[in-house]
Structure formats: structure tokens, C-alpha cells
Task: structure prediction
Amino acid sequence: MSSNTPPKLPLKIFRFYCSEERLEELEGDLFEVYNKFIQEKGIRFAKLFYWWIVIRSFRSFALKRTKMKNSKINNSITILKHNLIIAWRNLTKHKATTAINVLGLTIGIGAFLAIVRIVQFELSFNTEIPEKENVYRIYTSFTGSFTATNKGVAVPIGPYVEQNFSGIDAVAYFHTYSAAVEVPDGEETNKDFGRQSQLGIADSSYFQVVGQYKWLAGNPSTALSDPFKVVLTDEQAKTYFGHESWLDIVGKKIIYRDSLNLFVSGIVKQPDYNTDFVFTDIISFPTIKNSWLKDRFDSDQWGNTNSSSQLFVKLEPNVNRADILMQLENLDKHVQEQTGDTDWFQHYELQPLDKLHFNTDISTFDNGRDAAHLPTLLVLGVVAFAILLIAIFNFINLETAQSTTKSKEVGVRKVLGSPKRQLIGRFLTESMLISFFAVLLAVPLAHYGFIYFDEFIPDGVSMDFSDPIFWAFLGGLVVIVGFIAGIYPSLVISSYRPAIVLKSAGSNKGPGGSFIRKALILFQFLFSQLLIVGTIAVVWQISFMLDKDLGFKEDGVIYFYTPYYESYNKQKLITDEIETMPEVLDISIQNTPPVQNGYSTSTVKYDSPQGEVVTNAHRKAGDTTYLRFYDIELLAGRNLIPNDTLPELLINETFMKDLGFDDPRSAVGTTIEFNDENHTVVGILEDFHFRSLHHPIEPMLYLYEDKASCIALKVKTGDQLQSTINKLTDKWAEVYPDNPLKVYFMDETIERFYETEKKTSKLASTATGIAIFISCLGLFGLISHTIVQKSKEMGIRKVMGASILQIGSILSKEFILLILFAFIISTPIAYYFISKWLEDFAYQTNISWWIYVLGGLASMFIALASIAVKVWKASEANPIESLRYE
Result:
């Protein structure tokens, strides 16, 4: 292409649509403009501008004509252009109404966009993995003396399934793992990459079951066959080795946890879609038996279930799922024979891959993404649509209320021959234009909403502006919202009879309108009151849980864990160092603090006079300082005394009652069987909460153990706290230089129990604010229109002696009645859903009747406050202004 020849593609487009009689003239003009800009601006700018003028030239006078000069297409384009011009003039003429409509729809659409994006993001996980419908996870459930589930399986289960099950195409048993990673960057130095939490230990069958990877380097069938090999994802390879070629990275050494030297045997590309399989380093399974990893993962115990031990299977095509379930029942029996346990039983369940991301009971993987809660996603979806509907109802209310201002236009158009469909098109164009501006403003609003809610927005959620589907969705949203919001007002306005509206313009009330407006306002405040009461209930319950006495003292308590693989001598050294710190008021050694997210239970037996009692008890252990440190009361008996010959323990009050005792003193001295050994109960503890208030207090026992890994400190709070942690970190680094100190605060641990409720509270509060704001915007617009309509009536009433209060009550009476009706309808609905939500808590706050009344009063107060200024101005207006022309 020479420098003075226009680009071919826009030229072809121009020749396609331009009429033959104008083609030569217009093409010559475009050619001259193109060459002029080449000389003045350069060829790059000239090409871009040529595209622009080709697009701008797409006008009716330049288009090819059909046999009928005034074709339907040209007419439609002309009408659309005319409608857009009239719509724009109308919007700019009524600025206040336009602003209310655009603002209300912007907020509603923005909230809808943000929530729908979150829901769509969560629902997209694992949906694009090849042959996902044939992939299942096998996990463990327990019944008998206790009931629980575990996302893992015992280590021997994987090989047994692989050897004995039929209908299985591939079996992947692997372990999740985390470790500190170093990469040699010289002869004697290593580059430290800190702890990497997305590690897996698997063989090549993992890639057969989870077929989401594309191999960039290495042999898929042999990359994990030998010990001391590791396969990296492309992003992790770049993290460790920069931008070296994939082939150069293969064979490089990586050091895991100081001494595990592995060599890269393959590089795979992590998929672009959302998946829960986000392992970055996949270590070869034979490495376990050939390294110190065997101490942690190489177990032959059928009854030892660990959540890090995962088992996935890929079924053969057309295999009946029921056949696999029958084989799992046989596996249950086999495991029972191997363990010999009669008090509790292990069952193995199938979890389809498409349910992996949504089971909050067992979650996804250790150190993996939290599972999404499907009911919460459903509620979010309902809230999103409800907020959008409130915004649309606002638009409908204002447009139908102000329809009389357009009555003369409708009358004139009908007299001049405009059919009803053209009138509907005229007003739909206006609503589409408003919808377009609202969507345009809603996109940045939703984007910044993600920033505001960053602490509970799932990682990875964002507006993908590069995705064509996103823009197509926005375009569809413009059309759908514009149509839904505009179709009813368009039908109402276009139904006016010209003889009536031209005779007395503005007085026609039109068909319908009043009842529909009242119903829509009722819905708006019904939903708003539900959100207000729901938010109050959530906040009330959270405050109750955080303020409730848990039965022990948590003030000023911090704790941390020493590495389980380090010697006890190092722990003794660090505790001796800590005891010299004046900022530390007390110290206690224990396996866990009183409350934590995880828990450990054991089966306990007791021979009572009525027969053997078998129960499941939570197990805690530590030194003799535990009771003093946490100020836990001893109801009867004494504290533990260290000894190796006479095992003894403490039990809580609930455990005592389960054993059949009412008096704590009579339970002291009881012998119970625990871990195949008799233990003497030497003391009864007052009940304290060791789990969240979702759960009732359950049986618990406390054992003596002076070599536990958790060290709890009671420290001085206030300004000294940070300096205390800094000193503690320095002392820790002297003893454990390769392990960073991670300090936990007891009060933060307790608050984390209710993280979901706190997120729900913030979401509900925001949704409530949005719904109320949009509703009040609508009320403000409606009251403004009502005042204009009733200006003469108010003028006459003022002349007749009506007070400001009387006039205000006339203007606001209708809205107050609607809010009262909304309160009556919303109260039983709110009561039902709040009661259902509180069922998840063993300890509930008392939601009194006045909470519901408070919600109704808050809704009424906010509504009246939003119209008070307008009502006051109308009441204070000089009646002469409205009656001077009567």
C-alpha cells in the first residue's frame, strides 16, 4: 500500500453502504482529506481519522437507496435520530427529575453489577476442567460415638481403591503440603522465597484426573516417576528462575525446608479459568519413601485420617455412580476389619467435582481457597435483583407520576397521525438513554465498591474490561433495564386520548398509575424494612457473642507455636528467655489455647452402675498453670500433679453430667478409660466455651503435658504491646532462625469465629443503605411532583386558615400509610427469616418485639426526613403565587 492510498478495510465499508450517485464525489472528498492529514499529522493519524470520517459518513443522505425512496430502514433511522434528539432535550429540560432517575438507576445497577460479578465468579470454579463430570473426590465421614467429616482419607485408602475398584479410569492420591523454599543463585548462596503454601505431592496420575494443565516442558508420563523431582507451574517457574526458557529451567535445583533437594522435571501452564487446583509445586510421590517426608506422610494406619491426604478418582465413561457407591460400602467394611474399632466407624463418600467449591463443611484443600456458601450466594443474588428492581420501580413511579406533563405532546402527535407504537418508541428511547447513562456511571461505582469491600470480596474478583462478554452484558443490561423501566410508563403515556388532553392539558390522570405507584412504593419500603430489621438482628447477635462471658480470661493473652519437628530443648530455651522479660506477666505451656478453629476429640468409656457409658470428649492438654493462667474455676477436686505412674485428668461440668453425676464432688475419683488406659478424674472444671457460640458446650477433658508446642503469654497491653512483640521476635530469631514467629492474639481468635457474620452484617448494612437511599430518592421526586399538582389546593387551604402541620399531613399521609402497610407485611416475614438464621447458634440473643418496631420507625423516620424539606417549603409558600392567575 502506498503512502497516499487510504486503508482498504474502511474504504470497502464505505463503498458497501454509500449510494452510487454520491460514491465518486464523497470518495474523492475523503481521499483529499486523507492526503491532507498525511502531510499535516502523519500517516498513523491520517489512517485513524479516515476510519472516523467513514463512520461519521454513515448518514441517511449517503446510504444506498432501495426501490422505494423512503424505505423503512431510512424511516427507522430518521425516527430514531429524532427520538434521541427529543429525549435529550427533555432530559436536559427536567434536570432534577433526570438526576434522580439516573442517580437511582446508577446505584441500583452498580450494586447489581458488583453482586452479580461476585456470584458469577464463585459459580465459575472448576466448570472448565476437562471431563469434570467424571471426576469425584472421596472423603471420610465418621459415625458412632461421634459424628464428623474430613476432606481427607487414610493413606492406605488410595492404593486400595486403585487396585480393587472397577469402573475407574484413573486414581490420584496426593498430599497437600507447605514449606519454606530456597533456590541456589550462586555457588554458596541461596535465594529465599519464604513459605510456599500451595505445594502438592503426587504422581503422574494426578495430571490424568485433573486434566486442566498444558505441558510446556518435560514428559507427562515420567516427570513424577522418580524421587526428588518436582513439576512447576509456569508462573511459579518465573517466580523462582525469572524469564529463563522452560528447557533451561528443567534440571534446576530447588531446596524445600532446608534439606530436601529437588530437581525440576517439568513445567505446566496453569489454566486461565477459575479452579481450586492451584498447586504451584508438585513433588513426585516416590520422594516420600526416599526422604524425611516419610515420617509425616508414609503411614500404614487405616484409622489415621489426615485432611492433607487427598483422593480423587476419574470414572470411566458411562459408569453408573451407584456401582462405585456399592464398592465404597465394601471399603467401609474392609477398613472396619483393619482398624478393629467398634465405637466409631469410617465411611467413604463421593463428592462430584462441581460440588468441590461449595461444601463449607469440608472445604477445598488445606491452605486452599475457602469454599463458597451456596445459600449465601443465593441470598446475594436475590438482594442484587431486589435492589435493581427498587431502582427500576423508582423510575416507573416518577415517570408515571409526571406523565401528565407529556400529555400535550402525546395529543399533538396523535392528531398529526403518530401511531401508538411510534409513541411507545419515543418514550422507550428516553428510558434507554437514561439506562445508558446509568450503566455508564455504574461501572466505576461497582469497581470502587470492590475496593471498599476488599476485606470480604473473594480474591480475584474484578471488572474484566478486556472481556467482550462483559461489554455485551452491559449492552444487554442497558436494553433490558431501559425496556423494563420504560415499557409501563410508555404504555400509560401513549394511551392518553388527544381530545381530552388537548382540551385540558395536564388534568388527565391517565389510565392506571395511582394503584401501580402505591404498589411499587409498598414493595420498596417492604424490602427496605426487611433489610433494616435483618441488619439490626445480625448486629445484635454479633454484639451478644463478642460480649458474652466465655468462662475464662482472654485479656492480654497472646500465643504462638514452636515448630513440631524441633527439639524440646529449644522450646525450653525460648521459655527461659521469655521468663526474663518484665513485660510478660505469666506464661503457660499447652497444646492449644481454650478456643481455636480446630479441635481434637477422643472416645472415652466409663463403667457406671447403670452400664457402660461411651462418649466423645474434646481433648486439651498442657502444664499445671492452665487453670491459673486463664482463671478457670475448679468446682471440686484439685489441679493436676505431674506424674507418670498414675494417669489423671480434669473434666468439665458437661462431661460430668454425661457420666451421670449431678454433684461435682461425687464425680471426683471416678476412673474412666481413655486411649486404652485408665485415668482418674481428680477435678471438675466449670464449663467454659472452647468453640464458637454456634455450638453448645460439649464434654471436655484436660491432661497434663509439659512438652506441648503452644506457648501462651499474658502481657502488658497498651503502648508496650508492640515493643513486647518486637523483643519476643528477637529472642525467637536467636532460637529458631529459620522459622518466622507468628503471634496470635486471643481476642482476635475469638472474633475470627464470627467473621462470616461480620461480613454478612456489613453487606446487609450496605444493601440496606442502598435500598433506603434509592427509595428516598423516589419519594423525594414523587413529593416534588405532588406539591406541583396540589399547589392550588394548598393555596386555597392556606387562605382558608389551614396550618403548616395540616398541610404537611395532607402531603405525607399517603406515604405514611404505605410505610405502615409495609411494616405490617414485613414483620412476620422478618421474624421467620431471623428465627431461621438464629437456629445456627446454640446461644442466641433475645430479639424483642421492639426490634421490629424500631425497624418500622427507622424506615418511617428516614422516609419523612427525605420529604420534610419539600413539605416545609410547600407549607411556607405564599398562596398568592399559586392563585394569582385563578
